[in-house]
Amino acid sequence: MKTALIVVDLQRDFCPGGALAVKDGDAIVPAVNSIAGEFDKVIATRDWHPQDHISFASNHPGTKVQEILQLGDIEQIMWPDHCVPGTPGSDFHPDLDLRNLDLIISKGTSSGLDSYSGFFENDHTTPTGLEGYLKNLGITDLAVCGLATDYCVFFTVIDALHLGFNVDLVTDCVRGVDFPPGNIETRLADMKKTGARLIESVSLT
Hints:
Strand order of the largest sheet: 5-2-1-6-7-8
Number of domains: 1
Oligomer: single chain
Structural class: alpha/beta
CATH class: Alpha Beta
CATH topology: Rossmann fold
Largest sheet: 6 strands, parallel
């Protein structure tokens, strides 16, 4: 059995003080660092959005943050500008030990397409390359952590399960947005129902 840790979007813009801050998002960093050495590979995903990205409310005059627009076949939530390459907010949290990383997956890199999952863009067909990387290495078992529980972590876990991986969600190494209210609880239940195992980091060390 070969294993990998997927660290989802542990970037400064998603941590306290960032453009799209998740409450206590930075609190998970020590535990993430502590478990990274237990896996054969460690992969970090990151949002990597151009300034004219479709998810930015600033690019849709008259819209507000968290408003939902129907853009073609996709319901797009409007977010503040975040994780633009070259800005401090796009960097990984400064306390995340980058020496543990074997691969960085950049997602949401096209102006017209958002990406929550580490495996596919939000059209659910455009791959990021993560599946091929893992399967070419014979990795079968994944642990997922990072930000945010009810968005990018959730869609990464669900896609991983659908692709045939065994998936653990490290519950003390995630934090959520909880939009709309109650979304974290709903998403956790959905992940468990789909086949994810909910564990704590202490069980990995």
